[in-house]
Amino acid sequence: MPVAVVFPGQGTQTPGMGAPWRDHDAWHVVVEAEAATGEPLAELLLDAPAEVLSRTREAQLAVLTTSLVAWEAVRDRVTQPVAFAGHSLGQVTALVAAGALSLAEGVRFSARRAELTQACADSHPGRMAALLGSTPEQADDACTAAPDSCWVANDNAPGQIVIAGTPEGVDSGSIRAKELGVRRVTALNVGGAFHTPLMHDAAVDLAELLSDVALLATDRAVISNEDARPYTDAEGWRTRLARHVEVPVQWREVQLTLAGLGATTFLEVGSGSMLAALAKRTVPAIMVRGIAEPSDVPTDQEVFSE
Q: Domain 3-122+197-305, CATH 3.40.366.10 — does that match?
C-alpha cells in the first residue's frame, strides 16, 4: 500500500479537537510543545471556544499540535512513505513529521509565523473568497479585474480555487468571476489575504527568522506547496518557508505529484477531512485514510508502507 502522508492547514480547527487524544500515549507531544513555547497548548486543544480558535495564531497552533499528536500515534505504522505534504500551515507539520524540523523548532516557528502573518494582515487588510466551480483560467481572468490587488491564493482542486487580496480587489474579482459563469463565490472567514503579495513583509521577516532555525535533510521528500516538487534538502527550505506566505498554494498539483510518485493511498493525519474532499475531486482513484482521533489508529498489525 504505497502511502503519502498529508497534513491539513488552518480552517480545520474545532473546539475540543484535542479531547479524544487526552488519555492517549501520544499526548506527550502536547507537553513537549508547551515546554518549547511556554504556552498552555493543552487548554487551547481542550477548552478554547470557537471565537478563540478563529484567531490566526491560536488556530494554527491548535491545528499543528493536534496533527503532530495524531502523527505520533500512527508514525510507527508508517514505514517508508512515498512522501510527505501539507496544505499551507500543514507544510510545516509535514517538515516536522519528515524530520526536517524538530518538534520544538516546528511549534516555535509556527507561532512566530502566525504572529508575523497576522501583523502583516493588520497592516495590509485583505480578504479571501472561494470560487466554487471555477477553472484556473476563470480564476486568473477574475483577478484581472483588479490586477494589483487580487490574486489566486489557493488552487486546491478542480472547481475549488481561492482568490485573495484587498477588500476592494476581492470584491472586483468576485464580481468578474460571476460574470464569467463561476457557479458560486463564497467569502472565507479568515483574518487576511494569505498567500498573496500582501504578505511580503511577513516573508521578509520570516527569511530573517529562518536564518537561525535548525533544518535537516530528510530521507523522504516533502512536496512544496509553491511548485509541487519533491525536496529532501535542508537549506532550500529557508527560502521556501519564507516565500510560502506570499505565493499561491498549488495543492491540486501537489496531489498529482504524490500520485505520480506512486502513492495509492493518502494518509490524512489531523483534524477533519478537508484533504479527503479535495483528493476526491483531484485524484479520485486515490484512497484516503484519516487519522483524526485514536479510534482511527489501526489496532492490528496493519502497516502503511511503500
A: yes
Q: What is the pTM of this model?
A: 0.95
**Fold (topology level) of 127-187:** Alpha-Beta Plaits (3.30.70)
Q: At 237, is the secondary structure helix, strand, or coil?
A: helix
CA separation for the pair 162, 166 (Å, rounded): 14
* C-alpha angle 129-134-140 in degrees, rounded to nearest 5: 75
Burial (CB count <10 Å: 0-12, 13-18, 19+), residue 115? middle
- 24 as an active site residue: the answer is no
Report the 10 Å Cβ neighbour count for 168: 13
Active-site pick, 88, 110, 149, 271: 88
Over residues 80-138, the pLDDT tens digits come to 999 999 999 999 999 999 999 999 999 999 999 999 999 999 999 999 999 999 999 99
Choosing from 195, 224, 244, 271, the catalytic residue is 195
